[in-house]
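Two proteins were folded this term; both appear here.
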Amino acid sequence: MKIQTGYLYHIKDEFFNVVNDDKLMTNHERGKKRPTYFTIKDRDILWFIPLSSKVDKYKKIIDNKVKKYGRCDTILIREILGKDSAILLQNAFPTLEKYIDHAHLLDNGKPAKVVESLKDEILQNFKYLLKLKSKGINLFFTDIDSIKEKMMEELK
């Protein structure tokens, strides 16, 4: 499987067992494979950013952050595949290709991807959050450094 930035994928349960981080979003919801992840390919590491259909829930969180801080860079509400989705940058985590279960497929059987302008916006926000983290301002819920270290160890 060719993994590309901007495409949507699902992750194997095995990843959650290996990483064992209670801050990660759960992989199943009512028997369905969830969530779908926007993927960023960064050499051997993949960054997965969860997407959620619970838009109203996240709109409230965004509104609260904007009232408190004047902005919200950790959650975006955008249209993906014809439906509004919450893009949860705050829940991003690194993983490896071997933990991808499958690509999210369109009705025509082709792998799903986001439009180029949205891909660029997500990448820009993600890089900004990584830059803040490097300056000591961590807005990620998971311990991305620890998870990345585990993934790098697996590559050795």
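Next, the second protein.
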Amino acid sequence: MTEKTFTVDEAHGLMPQVRHQTERIVAVRADLAELSLELRSGEPSPQGGIPEAKALEATLDELISWFIANDIEVKGIAPVLVDFPAVLDGQSVRLCWLENEPELGWYHRTELGFVARRPLPHQ
């Protein structure tokens, strides 16, 4: 099976949905973190108990699966970091977006990862 690659324009076109999914992940992530802390400490939680924690975990998995179904790679969820496989100047790269960045504006060579991020060239 061939890996899907995105053009810069295709990736930009998905960003409204990426941001929406990310907002939902951030909310669920925070709820799950708070509930998990309360469960570990034995404190009663207004958010519920173990069944509610399991439901939040399932919701988080569902939100992440949207990215996978759209061929977007999830590299982290705290913060949310996603990569769009792409080709720039004949080279395999990842168009890279980090939670709270104003736009999709970075890329890195596939084999180097986040540490090698560079600004996308203006198109």
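Strands lie at 73-77, 80-88, 91-98, 106-109, 118-119. The mean pLDDT is 94. These notes refer to the second protein only.
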